[in-house]
Amino acid sequence: AAARSFETAIRLNPRLAQAYYNLGSVFQKRRDLGRAIACYRQAIALVPNYGNAQLNLGNALSDAGQHEEAIALLRKLAAQAPNVPAVLFNLATALKAAQKYEEAVEVAKRILAQDPDSGFGHNIMALFLWTIGKHGQAEASARRAIALDPANAEPNATLGKILATQGRFDEAMAAFDAALAIQPDYPDAIYQMTQATKARSTSETASRIESLLEAEHPADEKVMLRFALGKICDDMGDYPRAFENYRAGNELVAATARFDFAAWKAHVERIVAGFSA
Question: Distance (Å, rounded) from C-alpha 49 to C-alpha 190?
Fold first, then answer.
């Protein structure tokens, strides 16, 4: 109904930027990212300094896997509005989605300088510390994020990843369960849980994931759900179904991936430098 109203407004006044912005917001909530992006671009074409449209465009581009354009847009917005928390939050989120953790943590530091009690900032910090192997500090940051933002599933999932990396699987499962108690359809927690143990590889869990796949999700979340379902089917010995889901996940990755050979080479060289012969 909202979409119909905004479309009517646009027909009556095709230069009404707010109507395009609002229609884009509806499409974004529906996860119809292509149309959301088009609406935000039209709003910005009509009003070039439309900050909220630029912010939402950055989020939609990031969700659609168009990370470089999203980051460039949000960096520009952050330079124009350096003290607006929402801009920094979205820039850090886009950098995290692109797995640019070192850059994300620099933005998180700016967030924490403005608000030391930002659960979001502490969660970004935990993820960064985890990626560089500082597990004790990462765990402390994740627990701080949970304490500050107990209704958010993401810090619990972050804690689960950190604990699983250390082999503390019972504690990790408790953290993933806490995340899923808050947000039962959280793909990252579902994926991480299936990778950490075979204990949850049941037909009930498989059915639950299949029902989630019927809903709209960004491509990266669908990949996690497909790989989680593949792992469960593999654990249960249903190999044809496992292959089917792994193949579907890989096809989604291939459709959106932008392989950067130079970045991969640098990554391998960092591994070589980090370990003895």
Answer: 40
Query: Which residue type does 145 have?
Result: A
- Residue 185 near residue 217 (C-beta atoms within 8 A): no
Structure tokens at 117: 């009690």
Q: Which residues contact 204 (CB under 8 A, 6 or more apart)?
A: none
What is the value of pTM for the model shown? 0.70
167: left (phi over 0), alpha (psi -120 to 50) or beta: left
Distance CA 121, CA 124 (A): 5
Q: How far apart are the C-alpha atoms of 170 and 159, rounded to whole Å? A: 12
For residue 227, the SS3 value is helix
Distance CA 270, CA 264 (A): 10
User: Per-residue pLDDT tens for 193-250?
Assistant: 999 888 888 999 999 999 999 887 777 889 999 999 999 999 999 999 999 999 999 9
DSSP 108: H
Contact (CB, 8 A) for 56 and 24: yes
Residues 201 and 241: their CA atoms lie apart, in Å, by 13
